[in-house]
Design brief:
It contains 13 helices and no strands. The longest helix has 28 residues. The protein is elongated. The two termini are about 35 Å apart.
Length: about 350
């Protein structure tokens, strides 16, 4: 699975009402209580601009079936295609009122602010940020950001990479100005999806060096790692705050990063140290940490349950055993005790995080 499509739904699940726009009589996002008069005025002015639906090159409509404007814009799983991203985003529903999103208006705002596939148009980017922002503080920050870019002579010009200015000073991303936990989850999902593409490439290169006999063991290990990452992120992450979706994604990706780091260390000849005695000590520490976590009383809102910790522990055991089997096939000189000791110590550290000091 690439990145956190599964987790993205968590960003929209059970969110506090305070995270989104406050109540207002005319239900226009930029007429909220926390929008400054200058920002409100520029949103009112740009709201009269027409949708530039006929502008720019086109791609066949058939190519846009079930399209994902975020993937098309950032190049997730395929080369970035701003022309297709723009048409896909135009076909998506307006996102600002339904909840936090990077699709629809958000992608269009980035396309026009950065001049990707079209001529740079800050007024259109502002219009789309006004309508596509979910939280008032973010709307205020985004429009202020775009007004500053529009006023910067270095950011003039048609757009594109060459016109983004030194150090990307003129580049605009919808995640630059996030203030809400909900949007934090959406942007973390975006980051995870991008990281997953890069990780997939690295892992493909790693697998290319395996023999036919080693590949089945690696496939089983990779599957066990993903199961453990999902169990740890979904069951051992505090979900009581508005940043819960981001925390779940980060917890899952931390497992994936540790997995890749451990493989890289072994591949470079940096085998972990660990004797039978070391493993016995590590096991004792793990059992103590597990008992401590299972004895802890967790707040209802945290979403952490003893059965979830138990499930994550079982998934970790399956992952540990799969890692030992693969390591034996790929690096037979490395002892099973050394591999188990390293993984056990890492698991113990995670369990200790579940128990406040």
């Amino acid at each position: 699975m690439i990145g956190g499509h599964r987790v993205l739904g968590l960003a929209l699940l059970g969110l506090a009402v305070a995270a989104g726009p406050s109540a207002r009589a005319d239900d226009v996002p930029w007429h909220g209580n926390f929008i400054s008069p200058p920002v409100r005025a520029v949103c009112d002015r740009t709201a009269t601009l027409p949708d530039p639906t006929a502008e720019g090159p086109k791609v066949p409509a058939a190519a846009l079936k079930d399209c994902d404007s975020v993937a098309l814009y950032y190049g997730i799983g395929r080369p970035a295609d701003p022309v297709a991203a723009r048409q896909c985003a135009l076909s998506e529903s307006r996102q600002g009122e339904g909840g936090p999103s990077l699709g629809g208006d958000a992608v269009l705002a980035m396309i026009y602010a950065n001049g990707r596939g079209v001529r740079r148009n800050y007024d259109q980017a502002i219009r789309l940020s006004c309508s596509g922002s979910w939280a008032e503080a973010e709307l205020q920050a985004r429009v202020t950001h775009l007004l500053a870019l529009k006023a910067n002579p270095a950011c003039a010009g048609p757009g594109g990479t060459a016109a983004e200015g030194k150090g990307g000073v003129c580049a605009f991303d919808f995640c630059d100005d996030i203030t809400s936990g909900a949007m934090g989850g959406v942007c973390s999902d975006r980051d995870s999806r991008l990281a997953a593409v890069e990780r997939k490439g690295r892992m493909a290169r790693f697998q290319s060096g395996l023999t036919a006999d080693q590949r089945p063991a690696y496939a089983a290990l990779s599957k066990a790692m993903e199961a453990y990452a999902s169990a740890h992120g979904g069951s051992e992450t505090d979900l009581s705050g508005t940043l819960r979706a981001a925390f779940v994604i980060e917890a899952e990706d931390a497992v994936r990063t540790a997995f890749e780091t451990d493989l890289a260390a072994l591949a470079s000849g940096k085998a972990p140290a660990g004797t039978a005695a070391d493993l016995a000590t590590a096991d004792a520490a793990l059992n103590a940490a597990y008992k401590g976590a299972m004895a802890q009383t967790y707040p209802e809102m945290s979403g952490i349950r003893h059965e979830g910790i138990r499930g994550a522990e079982r998934a970790w055991i399956a992952y540990r055993d799969a890692f030992v089997r693969f390591a034996a096939a790929r690096w037979p000189a490395v002892s099973a005790e050394a591999v188990k000791t390293k993984l056990t110590r890492d698991r113990t550290a995670l369990l200790k995080e579940l128990v406040p000091e």
